[in-house]
């Protein structure tokens, strides 16, 4: 096992192009599981039967957001509270065309194939059914580091219809197969085995998410920095890298990835501790003599200023910050760490000490191939206006706040 090496992404792409199955594993801090993945447009009853027999999990079809809309495949639930927010739509069966109950290997293969055919219409499917479509995010694993997005990305990279079939791999005793078992399964069936993390690294080399601007000197009340703006290509949002010293050495760099908070960062709002965290991070980096702050334009944990203020209004009526977001139709946290990860890569940071109290932020960045040596806590003393907010972050969002009882 110690001598085993994962296959290359190019090898996996070629097998997908040839209609073969591959095994894709994700990060140990996420699900730490493996899925069989194949291209949807090349699926056969034999492959479905193999996935059912040897995978033992739930057979799903990953498709694009656009395809979901074309086929009127709405999300299964309006408020997704699943651990990893797996984007299930309503389940489906193909009607007619030789299909009967929908559960046979033939029926499921035909249902999957229909998802890839341009002439297929929404009314061609019965709902509910035995194939579970998954709605992949637009930027694939660069937006969400999951098997759903990996399945679509591999099909697209292979030059095929951007849709994949996937199933979780379980052991014979019903437990989830982990990397040692997955490696053996790959050897037994002569399959390529790759990781989501390697796919992300591959795409980051091939596909730039951001456009880099000019670098300028930036003297501040917290010391002398260099500022580089970045524009996100997908939506035009502009972000900032604030850099101090030489961050291109092999030594881990002190880094703060900070989401914008107009109320706290600019106006000094006491309803949150965002502004204090930003300024304290600048002080810490100045004292260190080297480091970087990645300032992401993701107001209100990614929901935007208007929605954040609506959430504030609900908090004034008794909801906590998580309840308010969910009531408005959002997740508790909608931030996208992929763009932050690429900005860090663009400025030469790959190994860091991350200033954060949020374990999800660390997981989110590590999923994009960055190495985080240490979490550096940033404790802010609560005040009468933000104590309940900070307590909610500790109790409901897992933030490591030692000064909160």
Short characterization:
With 405 residues, the chain is α/β, with parallel strands linked by helices. Helix content is 35%, strand content 21%.
Taking the alpha carbons of the first and last residues, their distance comes to 44 Å
The profile of the biggest β sheet is: 8 strands, mixed
Based on secondary structure, the structural category is: alpha/beta
Give the name of the CATH architecture of the largest domain: Alpha-Beta Complex
Radius of gyration: 23 Å
The share of residues in extended strands comes to 15-25%
Which fold name is given in CATH as the topology of the largest domain? DHBP synthase
What is the CATH class of the largest domain?
Answer: Alpha Beta
Order of helices and strands: HEEHEHEHEHEHEHEEEEEHHEHHHHEHEH
Number of discrete domains: 2
CATH superfamily of the largest domain: DHBP synthase
**Overall pLDDT level:** 91
Q: Give start-end ranges of low-pLDDT stretches.
A: none
Q: Tell me how many strands there are.
A: 15
Query: So how many helices?
Result: 15
